[in-house]
Design goal:
This protein is of the alpha/beta class and 282 residues long. The chain has 2 domains: 33 residues, no CATH class; 203 residues, 3-Layer(aba) Sandwich (Rossmann fold), CATH 3.40.50.2020. Helix content is 35%, strand content 12%. The chain has 9 helices and 6 strands. The protein has a 4-stranded parallel sheet with strand order 1-6-5-2, with helices on both faces. A two-stranded antiparallel sheet has the order 3-4. Helix 5 crosses helix 7 and helix 8 runs parallel beside helix 9. 39% of the residues are buried. It binds zinc ion (ZN) (2 copies). The site of one zinc ion has 8 residues, from helix 3. The site of one zinc ion (ZN) has 8 residues, from loops.
Length: 282
């Protein structure tokens, strides 16, 4: 077999594979769905099967206009639109300092496993796929203030060294590219490390996040409308703490965007009238 023939064969085989796989990216994921393990029947740009993608529970209207929490359809809404108990006017001080928060989907098992791929394997095609969805949410929701800059929630330097990358930054980069906005990755910093225990109660989360973030010395966000990006909205404590740091550095408003949102197990969506009893900062 001549070298020339081998080279020609390799080129032909590669192009056939590319066609079959629907793009170069899919060649990296030729086998099984990385979430459920079933064989991938049709090649996608990301290593997930159609069933797993379909199992993502999108967060849809009605939702709290401020924090994005899903609400029960038909609940009584105030004149300013739907609000959960924590975000109703008159709650003083307001629970959250951001102007609004939105999430792509409920943090269910499939999304948890997908985010784990992003978090532990820096899977950039996945960040791009989520980035597209998040950018579309910004474009289509008139209640989200038009952003002028995108900022990822930072990791503590020790955690960043350990992991080698920040998954929120991968997402923020993908969103910024799609919205054609500047990205500021070294503008916020986490100064206080997260407590070592794996699971934190709501109260501990708020305690751990309080004062944990600050704008890097010399960074100003004067008059900017910041789009703050993270992977998961758990209690909102992290997004709240980052917002306070951004406002201290001059930001005019802050909209927070996450891929996943923890919705209390068992309770499902809450009505605007009820609200979750133990939710938020205490
Ligand atoms: Zn699957
Ligand atoms: Zn709310």
């Amino acid at each position: 077999m001549s070298k020339l023939w081998l080279a020609r064969w390799a080129i032909a085989a590669t192009s056939v594979l590319r066609e079959a796989a629907g793009g170069v990216v899919a060649l990296a994921f030729p086998d099984d769905c990385r979430v459920c393990g079933r064989p991938l029947e049709e090649p996608l740009r990301i290593p997930l099967c159609v069933a797993c993608l379909a199992s993502f529970q999108r967060i849809r209207e009605p939702l709290c206009g401020v924090c994005g929490r899903p609400l029960v359809a038909g609940a009584h809404f105030s004149a300013i639109g739907p609000r959960c108990r924590l975000c109703r006017p008159g709650e003083s001080p307001g629970t959250y300092s951001f102007d609004c928060a939105r999430s792509y989907a409920v943090y269910n098992e499939a999304l948890l496993r997908t985010i784990a791929l992003l978090k532990h394997q820096a899977m950039r095609p996945l960040a791009g796929w989520f980035g597209e969805r998040l950018a579309e949410m910004v474009r289509s929701d008139p209640r989200i203030p038009a952003p002028t800059v995108v900022v990822p929630v930072p990791l503590h330097p020790d955690r960043l060294r350990e992991r080698g990358f920040n998954q929120a930054e991968l997402l923020a980069r993908a969103v910024a590219r799609r919205l054609d906005l500047p990205l500021k990755t070294r503008a916020l910093e986490r100064r206080k490390p997260r407590p070592p225990q794996r699971r934190l109660s709501r109260h501990e989360r708020w305690q751990a996040a309080r004062g944990a973030y600050a704008a890097v010395t010399g960074t100003q966000f004067d008059n900017h409308t910041v789009l703050l990006v993270d992977d998961v909205f758990t209690t909102g404590a992290t997004l709240d703490a980052c917002t306070r740091a951004l406002r201290a550095a001059g930001a005019a408003s802050v909209a927070a965007l996450t891929v996943a949102r923890v919705v209390d197990a068992g309770s499902g969506p809450v009505s605007a009238a009820q609200g979750p009893g133990d939710f938020g900062r205490r």
